[in-house]
Design brief:
- The chain has 14 helices and no strands.
- It is an all-alpha fold.
- The chain has a single domain, classed as Na+/H+ antiporter like fold (Up-down Bundle), CATH 1.20.1530.
- The longest helix has 29 residues.
- It starts with a helix and ends with a helix.
């Protein structure tokens, strides 16, 4: 609905652009309450999923996404938009969907946490390497990641306090859903003229995202089944290699490169949703059979 409203009545997006950073900070604070501190212990058992989350979400996804964008994007701002997507931490939706899709929940939590913490260093590094020629302030991005990742995670520990958490858990879903809706609406609304006037951009961006999400996810899952024999871990890894946070990427793109660079992130929100629905319907079909 955020995408539809952005296309239909996106004029208000220009006023919301100023508050997207603060909206995202609140969303990240509530959404990271799903990462339990207890799941980090014992420390010896978290090293492998911790590093796997970083490898899959940054290096595997990043290589595919940036390569496809470099080959297909006609505009450097759009290419930078995909660089931002590659540099973005994973979507927190990985955690609940690991439960829905019969993945390994603890493995997913640790993998997401690893990629989250690594994003503070890797995001400025990746943007600096692939977009540094345009005088991007990587220190600005470093502090942006601190405020959007580390600070919300620390504040979320307070929300896990026993007397507060029951109230937090009741409103968490609504806060996260509405917060991301505002961010996606803003990204789409600011670029609605481009969506209507240049179908080629929409088509090419969609192709890059199809390759980076659907094609990559399918190839990885098929390959992993030949190597691993744990279906739960395979599902968790498939989510880690395909699901990025569209909300974070929108705010990063708007802050660093402007409205055009946010187009891929807005489209990605739709692709990630479709991919998660596809995996969910596939599970239901298997149950019925």
């Amino acid at each position: 609905m955020a995408v539809v409203l952005g296309l239909a009545v996106g004029d208000w997006a220009v006023y919301l652009k100023k508050i997207t950073f603060y909206v995202l900070a609140v969303v990240m604070t509530f959404s990271t309450t799903g990462i339990s501190t207890r799941s980090l212990f014992p420390l010896k058992k978290i090293v492998k999923p911790f590093l796997t989350g970083i490898l899959l979400n940054y290096f595997v996804f990043g290589t595919v996404c940036i390569t496809a964008a470099w080959l297909l994007m006609p505009d450097k701002e759009l290419f930078y938009g995909f660089v931002v997507i590659a540099a973005t931490p994973p979507g927190v939706a990985i955690i609940p969907f690991s439960g829905i899709l019969k993945g390994d929940l603890k493995y997913s939590i640790i993998g997401v946490l690893g990629a989250f913490l690594a994003s503070v260093i890797l995001a400025p590094l990746m943007v600096g390497i692939f977009a540094g020629s345009d005088d991007v302030n990587t220190w600005h991005l470093f502090f942006l990641m601190l405020w959007l990742i580390i600070v919300p995670m620390l504040v979320s520990r307070l929300l896990l306090y026993k007397k507060i958490f029951p109230a937090v858990s009741k409103i968490r879903g609504k806060v996260v859903d509405w917060g991301f809706a505002i961010i996606i609406y803003t990204a789409v609304g600011l670029n609605r003229d481009v969506f209507f006037s240049d179908f080629r951009i929409l088509l090419l961006s969609s192709l890059v995202l199809f390759i980076s999400v659907f094609l990559l996810g399918t190839i990885y899952e098929v390959t992993a089944k030949k190597i691993l024999h744990n279906q739960q871990i395979i599902m968790s890894q498939t989510l880690l290699v395909t699901v990025k946070s569209s909300g974070v990427s929108v705010v990063m793109a708007l802050s660093l490169f402007g409205t055009t660079a946010a187009i891929p992130s807005a489209i990605m929100a739709v692709f990630v949703l479709l991919y998660l629905l596809y995996l969910s319907f596939r599970i239901e079909l298997k149950k019925r059979k």
